[in-house]
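Problem: given the chain below (427 residues), write out its structure.
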Amino acid sequence: MTRAQITLTSPRRHRARWVPPLMAAAVVCLLAGLWAALVRLGLDVPAGISGLPQAHGTLMVLGFLGTFIALERAVALGRAWGYLAPVAAGAGGLAVTAGTPGGVGEVLLGCGGLALVAIFVAVHRIQPSLHNVVLASGAVCWVVAAGLWLAGWDVSRFVPWLAGFLVLTITGERLELSRMTGTSRRARLLFAGAAALFAAGLLASLAAGPAPAAPGQAVPAGVRVTGAGLIALAAWLSRYDIARRTIRGHGVTRYMAAALLAGYAWLALAGGLWAGLGQMADGAAYDAELHAIFLGFVMSMIFAHAPVIVPSVLGRPLPYRRVLYVPLALLHGSLILRLAGGDWAGSTSAWQWGGSLNETAILLFLVMAAVLVIRSRRAARPPARLRPPAPSAPPRGDTPDGPPRPPAAGDGQHEPHTAGPSPAREK
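Solution.
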């Protein structure tokens, strides 16, 4: 018997009622992570809970994006146990935001990653494929990153694994969609080679150990190999992704392709920075290496996939409007300002303005998406039906449709005619 395919746009069962609360938890993690970013930019804002600025990266990647990615996969799977992944990730992100002691947040985030691995294993048993292996590998990167965090490793040492989670998840999804274009066996082998190079770099990066990197310290070879893998994946996406064709389209198709191709350019730049500089210590190079991939690539992918992912998760359409280009352009323009004017030229003002506008672009897109979803829901509601006024009873001897008629044989002399249909029945 042929089983129905499990895809993001065709969930196997009805969506659970707790999908909106889980999305709300992801948004709370996002807002907390953005606030922590403002603190790290050195702006005059309250620091909030102790330790929150240091958890900025993990909160954004595992708390916000981890919850959202796990939620969309749980919806696609359509099994109740699959929601353990976004529940654990969302709860872990909220625990980190609240500063819960004892490593509760880290443990919950790790459990969310394990549940996501179980989801991909279940999907692979139904539909064995290369892209499911890649997606599962991304979930394993999530688990490794959470485990290293819980073990006390410095963020700079396990940040390649955070990047691995998102890069393998996104490229796995693009590989899944590439089946629409009939990707050749050679192309799939090239993808497998690029992903294997990237994974080898991640494994080699563990040799650097848990201590934070120091300025001027020798760059771990694993980081450079990881950067080479990023370049290889960016080259594959630029060559074989369907966005190369859809950029010539119109409307939402062209918008998505523009966001995708821009993200691939940032992925290639991030790979070049990782392979060429590879600095994992705090500083301008480290800032550029991280935000080229987490903002330039990952956030651009979120902007691109939102018109497809949001309806599949919420069951409500996200209509395309040309105004969506505004936050997309602001994201990339402000990131150029941050990296070129701040990290490269050394201007603190340009760095802070670029970082602040990065957050503005994300929040603007979030607000626009929420407004478009709410408006589409209102527009989809059917108008209230107006009940027609009750017809008055016809005079005795009259038919409902016309003037009185002579009584037929067998009719009573004083009974109205009731054989014809009433106006209510006709309607």
